Amino acid sequence: MTIELNARLRDAGLRVTGQRLAALRALDEHPHSDTDEVHRRVREEFPGFSLQATYAVLNALTDAGILRRIEPAGSPARYERRIGDNHHHVVCTRCGAVADVDCVHGEAPCLAPSSTGGFEISTAEVTFWGLCPECQTARSSA
Questions:
Q1: Which residues are CB-contacts of 16 (< 8 A; sequence separation ≥ 6)?
Q2: Share of the chain above pLDDT 70, in %
């Protein structure tokens, strides 16, 4: 995996650094993490790594198209490595857990607005909201 990550960084015009690799590994293991979670995980390898540096790494990786940033309403921004496909998300209204939902309509954008207002549409983001299995169980037990 490290060789593939090194190549992705170089292909995007970014230097390969331990901190960038650690952030990518953290998101491989824990997709949909927010900045604080990525920071905690990177600090396990790099104890002096600052929160500001984490923001800089995540922004650079997002700008380079290596990460996708999602911003569910009422939640901090989250990041994922799954990019370039046409998937959406489901968010738990109780605990905030996020999961991927594959689009069933094919190529991006998978949905077409009734009016584009002159915009050229390239993607559509859909967020489904509901209760995750754990919160359903907790609700039933209460």
A1: 5, 6, 9, 10
A2: 96
